[in-house]
Amino acid sequence: MGLVAVSALIEMPFGIGGFLYGCFGQLLGVLGIHHILNLLEINMLAQFHWDYLNPIGTCGNIAEAGVVLAVAIKTASNKMKQIAYPSALSAASVITEPAVFGVSLRLVRPFVCSMIAGGIGGFFASLLHLKATGMGLTGIPGTLFT
């Protein structure tokens, strides 16, 4: 049932579902329920030999990395710079928790910007029908080496 609902969301016409998942996928991580999607991804890989959630979710991760890097560059606070630069690097490698909890949620506006940017990336990923053929490392390293 969950696979059908997520499939219906992602397969909405004109990339709307990808936009919605790209926007609100970050909230799943904040709430700690993002790992439940692994079950859906494994099921998709077993049934169809591809997974379309992973590329859309990766857009949200890269958006978070970009937003936190922008905060690191623009802020005057040395303490925030010390948190934001390494957090941007780890977010580009798909470990977004330091970026989200250490920078974005503290300032709120960067988190909203990352949700919007993730939605735009998810829109294009959905429009282009991007699919992953396996699970594992995502983000920039996963994109370069798969």
TrEMBL record:
It comes from the Bacteria. Keywords: Cell membrane, Membrane, Phosphotransferase system, Sugar transport, Transmembrane, Transmembrane helix, Transport. It is found in: Cell membrane. One of its GO terms (molecular function) is protein-N(PI)-phosphohistidine-sugar phosphotransferase activity. Pfam families: PTS_EIIC. Residues 1-146 form the PTS EIIC type-1 domain. GO terms for cellular component: plasma membrane. One of its GO terms (biological process) is phosphoenolpyruvate-dependent sugar phosphotransferase system. It is a multi-pass membrane protein. This is Putative PTS system sucrose-specific IIABC component.
